[in-house]
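Morning F.,

Quick status update on the modeling queue. The single chain you submitted on Monday has been processed. Sequence for confirmation:
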Amino acid sequence: MSEPASTPLLAVSNVNAYYGSARALEDVSFEIAAGSTSIVGRNGMGKTTLCNAIVGIPPARVTGSIRYRDEELVGRPSYKRAQLGIGYVPQGRRLFPSLSVDEHLRMIPRRSGERRWTVERVYELFPRLAERRRNGGAQLSGGEQQMLAIGRALLTNPKLLVMDEPSEGLAPAIIEQLVETFRALAEDGLAILLIEQNLGVATAIAERQLVMVAGSIAAETTAAKLSSDMELQRRYLGVEPLSERA
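Structure tokens below.
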């Protein structure tokens, strides 16, 4: 049964997250209906904690509501969330050094029902992985590792893809390739939630920008406004105007 048209794909409402008595997220609320959304902010602002709260990764204690297609996620284990249709590309890739590219992709369990993504389709999306299919995770370049992490997530056939700092540690040429890939995936109907510190990547992928400061969503803006407004960048992201840089 499909959801009513007014039901958002993801609805985060008054979410708080705690590490012991320390609060890392404070009353975070936003909705995603479709398309791509970026959450940007400096290090230590709570972006990864929010990402982990959505996909169900401990150790933070989470309160509030996170609903995916009107299904409550808080309290559900991460594998149950993945089964509902949330794909995850973690910060740092988190591959298995001893497994080959092909083994990484073929270990994803097959479920009954619609299966838009197959190992063969991942190889079509990332031909470099097909060339390196027998190489272990530790033998891949940073860009190849990121391609593999994305391909692994796509094999869960998500409706929503959550990506945590996908550009981290990558060369500019590789980042450009991945941005084009993300745009193509969005055009194909995949909703993307991008957690990103790199402002250029965030604004290239998503028009909608949520700015995170001290564990809260401090502002909602557009890629065009955030890219052109240096005062906004300085206030929320700590970016200095070119004329003031040493």
